[in-house]
Amino acid sequence: MLAARGAALAGGLRVLTRPWLRGSGALALARAAGALRAGHGRPLAEPGPRRRRLGLSAAAVVNSAPRPLQPYLRLMRLDKPIGTWLLYLPCTWSIGLAAEPGCFPDWYMLSLFGTGAVLMRGAGCTINDMWDRDYDKKVIRTANRPIAAGDISTFQSFIFLGGQLTLALGILLCLNYYSIALGAASLLLVITYPLMKRITYWPQLALGLTFNWGALLGWSAIKGSCDPSICLPLYFSGIMWTLIYDTIYAHQDKRDDALIGLKSTALRFQENTKQWLSGFGVAMLGALSLVGVNSGQTAPYYTALAAVGAHLAHQIYTLDIHRPEDCWDKFTSNRTLGLVVLLGIVLGNLWKEKKTDEAKKSIDRIEN
Fold this sequence. Notes:
The protein is mostly helical. It is built from 20 helices and no strands. Helices cover 73% and strands 0% of the residues. The protein is globular and about 75 Å long. It is found in: Membrane; Mitochondrion inner membrane.
């Protein structure tokens, strides 16, 4: 009996090591482990059914959902909420800037746009995965996406997309007519931007045009129309920001992209990436400064911009474009950067009331 178990264990080790030595990596190891369990009749150490652990992370929430729902939640990227944050934050900047002096941003609009960001990011990811299902199968990082892995059919994803867009339309219809028309105009960008990586080395620019539409929409939802002197530089700053974080993101897949013929700014910039990102960072800060001047912002806003500049400098200077894990860490750190901008807008707007009160007291003293 002991000899038989030893032979089985030795055979299992050979099954595990052969594919690993062939260079197929973690995916082959996982497959070999599965073969080991299946080929030897009984699992090595599985005492009963495994319990799913509950946690507060987005991935844990998705994993604790009913199994039939999980592929759809992963298709929306609910397990990776960083994209939703990056879509939502420019909306919050715009809503915050549109608030009356001395007031907090409109909480109803913030919640409305937050719900819309979840739905539209999910719709964008669904469209992206439908377009890229054949490419995703060839890239290690994306091969397990629900459509590429066969967990959801193209028809099912199309129906799911229709449901998301219908709910997003319900959100849009809560806004004024100007904003409804402006929001509907973004749909063309949402549909076409996933195709840009086949056409140009600047798909990140197309993503920036799409992801920062909320910088226009948030202001118009509050004010009834866009103020070009504020909305356009805010939109431009968001585009520059997207070029920074999504170029960093694209460096994770540059080898696979080059092999399968996809394009990105990571492949365009290559070893000159840090110089390009530095230029985008300067342009972003310049545009945000112009927003501050045109909207009458105060000291807290410019203090926040100084912190944003320091964050960008550290992010770019310490970036290692050859380490995918470092690229991911730098990419996700941009949520903090966006929140710092929002904090500066809110505090700067609250400071306006203090300045107004001081000005009124000075006038009263002069008149008396």
